[in-house]
Amino acid sequence: MPADIAPLPLKEQFTRGLDAPICLTWELTYACNLACIHCLSSSGRRDPHELSPAEARGIVDDLVDMQVFYVNVGGGEPMLRPDFFDLVGYAVERRVGVKFSTNGTRLTPARARQLAALDYLDVQISLDGAIASTNDAVRGEGSHAAARQAMDNLAAAGFGPFKISVVMTRQNVDELDALAALADEYGAQLRLTRLRPSGRAVDSWDALHPTAAQQRLLYHWLLERPGVLTGDSFFHLNALGEPLDGLNLCGAGRVVCLIDPVGDVYACPFVIDRQFLAGNVRDPGGFPTVWRQSALFSSLRQPQSAGACASCGSFDACRGGCMAAKFFTGLPLDGPDPECVHGHGEAALAALDQRPRSPIGHSKVARDGTPLPVPTPVRFRSPART
Amino acid sequence: MRSEAAFDVERGWRLNPQVALRDEAFGALAYHYGNRRLVFLKSRPLVELVSSLERYPSASAALVALAPAGQRASYERALARLAASEVIDAR
Are A80 and A74 in contact (CB under 8 A)? Predict the structure, then answer.
C-alpha cells in the first residue's frame, strides 16, 4: 500500500495531471464481429483510416519514452487486427504491459498458447451474465458460449489467472455470486465495471443501468470483496459510505486517456465525442505533445467547479461522479451524476427531453444506411478449431 | 501478501528487480510487472531511499543515512508496506 508521507494529498496532485498518463486505453480497431447493445465505441466496421502497423509501433515507442507501464487494449475486437500479435509482442518486449479485452470469439487453443507464452500480458474476457440468456441479450446470441470456450482454451493453455470482465446491468446484478463462482472455477479474477451511456448505450442505458437499490447492493457486495477488480469505475458509489478500493477520482485527461483506432486522443474511453477530442497521434509532436499541451487536457487539469453538487455533503466522496455519464445523458458536467446515490441525478434527468448523440460511430449499417438491428446473432469460426 | 510484521529492518533489502520506478514531482510511481500492482512513493526522499537500499548492509543503515531527520519511524513503516506489496525484497 502507498506510503503516507506526502506534501499534498496525492488525489489533488493527480487531478492536476501528470507529464505522462499512469495508463491509457488504446482501442486497436473499430472492427467487431459482435454488436453489443451497450458498446461504448459503437464498434462494428473497421475504419479505413485506422493506424498502420508502423504507426501503431510508433505509439508503443512513445509509451516507452513516457514510461507508461501498461496499456488497456480494446476495440472493437482487438484480435481482428491482422498485426495483433506482432503489436502486443512488440509492446511487452519493451516492457509496456498489455491488458487486453476480448469477446473471445477468436481465442482459439493455438492463440491461447501464443498468449500464454507472453510476459506482461493480461487477458480480460468480456461476459455480461453468468447465465447465457442474460449475456446474449446484450452481447448477441452465441456470445456466452464463445466466451466460455475462450476461457476453457486459456485454462487448457495454462495461461494462469485471466480476468472475467463484466459490465454491471440491471439484468445481471442478481448473478453477482454466480459470476464470482464462475471466476473461482477458472482461478480467474472477476472484474466489474460500470455501464456508461456512451456509444450504442446512449440508446440502451435506460433499460440496462442498475436501479438505485441494485447500486446499494453492488456497493456492499464490493466492500465485502476487495479482491474483485473494478477499474476504479464505481467511485460515484462512495457517497454511500466508506470508499471502495481505488484512486476514486475521474482521471480523464489527467492520469488516463483514450487513443482510438484512427489515432484520435480522447479524455477517456467513454467520451468518444468531438467535445472531448484532444488531438491526434498523427499531429506534429505525436501523442506526447497531445498529452502535454492540448487545450482540452490543460483545461481538465484546472480546478473544476462542483456546481450544483457544491452544497452536497457527499461531494468529497464522489466528486460529482462520471463526466461521461453526465455528458451522454445530457446533464451539466458540474452537476450530479445520473446515477447519484442520493437521487439528485434522477431528478435532473426527468427535466430533460433530449440527449446528445455523438456523430462518431462505426456500427454496422444496412446498404441504405439504416442501422442494423442489434444485437445480431454471432457468426464466428468455432473457437474450438485452431 | 506478507504482513508488515514480516519486515526485518536489520536485513539487507533492495528494489525488487521486477519493479520499475517513474519519477514524478510528488515522488514516484512504482509498477510491479509480476503482480501488476501500482504503488505510489509519496516523497522524493522515499524514492531515494528505496533506490539506494541495495548499497547499504541493512534497511536500518539506509534509514540512518537517508531518512529525513525525525522521520525515521515513518519511513521505516513506509518500507514495511513496500515490502508487503513486494516493491522491495530481502536480499
Answer: no
Q: Does B50 touch chain A (CB under 8 A)?
A: no
Summarize pLDDT for A202-221 with one digit per residue, the tens: 999 999 999 999 999 999 99
- Cell numbers 537517508 correspond to B66
**The amino acid at A41:** S
How far apart are alpha carbons A234 and A317 in whole angstroms? 11
Alpha-carbon distance of A95 to A68, in angstroms, equals: 9
Q: Are A251 and A268 in contact (CB under 8 A)?
A: yes
Taking the model in full, what pTM does it have? Answer: 0.92
CB A183 within 8 A of CB A192: no
Name A185's Cβ contacts closer than 8 Å, sequence gap at least 6.
none
Quote the ipTM score.
0.91
Q: Does the beta carbon of B22 lie under 8 angstroms from any beta carbon of chain A? A: yes
Q: Which residue has the cell 482501442?
A: A27
DSSP alpha helices (H): ranges in B1-91? 44-52, 59-66, 72-84
Count chain A–chain B contacts defined by CB atoms under 8 A: 66
**How far is it, in rounded angstroms, from Cα A56 to Cα A61?**
9
